[in-house]
Amino acid sequence: MIPVTDYRFGDKHYVTSFITPHNPDIEQVASSFGDIQKENTWVEKVAAFIRDTFEYPMANGMPLADGQLLRYTTGLFRHKWKACRYYVWAFPAEVLQSHLGYCAESANLACSLLIPKIPALVCLGEVRSSKDDSLLGLHAWIELPYKNEPYVFESTIHEKEANNLTPTKSVYNKDSEWAKRGVYYIAKAQYDNKEFTGDSSVIARMKLPAKRVLLFGLEKTLALSEKKLYKEWRAEDRIKEALLREIWQ
User: Fold this and answer.
1) What does the alpha-carbon distance between residue 44 and residue 51 come to, in Å, rounded to a whole number?
2) Which of 89, 119, 137, 160: disulfide with 7, CB 3.0–4.6 Å?
3) Cβ neighbour number for residue 218 with a 10 Å cutoff
4) Taking the complete model, does pTM exceed 0.90, yes or no?
5) How far apart are CA 143 and CA 123, in angstroms?
């Protein structure tokens, strides 16, 4: 069964709905890459586009995932309808417009650009310390075939010339040479625009501070206010993303 999320201001969508290869804006970007026949070249083109065109949303050094939806303006700062959420998934076309996207948003966009030519999947899962296996946070990335083997495509790295493609055998293995840089990934779920496999509970946990859920459980975590949970999520995500930027060079 495909899980449902309410990360669009409370309205519900299947998680697979966030992969939109046939959206006109997505198709326009894909067509701008030219008539690329080689799959490896297409992967490299999309990986460079995501790396060089977008930014991780930040304010005062802290990650952002919140959003507002306003309609029917009746005056300055007055609206007949307003929805504010601490954790929002923008659709890929919206990420294209803003040039901003945190892990789930940039991964959904990258997968939307890839799958017309490449059987790519968005992965949701854990980032853990290679030193002590401690949980650093939940994360989203892409898994895809490249150079005749499975690769991880990290969509949140936006430093010019950074390498955002590494074999899964390195990223998923805490004893690999790559993991000695400090982290390894554990995939809990995967999806594209048609199918979802894995642990569906990870969808609901994406907006929560992962360490708190691990220590106190989901029920006790959800008993706290959304504002407090979002504050903890931002602090956790800031540390995780700073480490990933250092590692993915």
Assistant:
1) 10
2) 89
3) 14
4) yes
5) 7
